Amino acid sequence: MIAELVLATLFGLLLLGIHRKVIARIQRRPGPPVWQEILHAAKFSFKTTWVPATASRALFIGIVLVAIGIWTAAFFVMMTGGSLLVIFGIYMLHKIVEHAFGLSSGSPYGKFGGVRSVISAASEIPLFVSVAAIALFTRSLTLSDIIAWQQVHGPLLIIAFPAAIAMYLVLLSKMPFGPFSIVEAKELVSGYKTEHFGVWRAGLEVCNGLKTTVLLATFLLVFVGQLPLWWMVICMIALTVSLSFACALTPMLSPFDSVTIQSLFTGVMLVYAGIVFLWVAA
Amino acid sequence: MKRSAGRLLAVGGISCGTAFALHWSGWIPLWVFAAVVVLAFPPTVLALFLWWMAGEGKEDIPFIGY
Question: Does any domain span residue B27?
């Protein structure tokens, strides 16, 4: 399981590299090589490192450990077919991690990035409705039960298509350079991670790699079901490419517009969940 | 700094390795193995990076606005 953990981290970084490459090609730029994010993590890990004088030392270092730790836990939950609620609880916890990254540095750019991560919590509301719709269909929130349910009834991607769209929107909000990536907008330099450089940034890259693998794999397990390993890899790459197209072809929204669109989508999803509830009860 | 990071790396690596071996041989359940890895993996990764990094610089004050 430790080898899988390391491979999942490297694969997640590779997916982020593919994401950057596809966006660049759509925008008619050569773009970096697909393994650039892996090189990035390695490069940062070799750099001279210190803690800024204005930072809260314990929080500045501790939050990097927390960031890697929570996604390691999410990876184990996913691999053992555990509760979907735990994975999404960890997803929510990541918001607090982003916030703490920004606040711990003592830099205004980091702080603004941290504050925006709280504003963008609106992106999680479609997630709740998506989870509710899944629970109404499958009567369980355990990944292994959801996978078993799909083996009998077919993929939830077809049966609960609006819930899949809502979850896709959540994935989109977590991808870099996306329409909802307001925490990493260029006017904030690098947002919440501005002051985390060197070894600390390399740790954050490890967290991002693991997070990308866990979120994409969870999406496939919940909405498509259990696939053979190679099909899982191919589908995760295809999912990344589709997200890259969405990111490349849409401008980054202002924080207000981002929250408004996600809230509107939540409203639509609530109506859908209400219809599903009445249909299941009938 | 590098010496402490090296020690932490060794402790973390041994913890993960021991937990894996104990779980593989059926001595500890999966959740204990997972708990050990969740606690030991992050400091091991950071200790590895701190151990092989170029060096420790002098702390500075970041740009805090005009």
Answer: yes
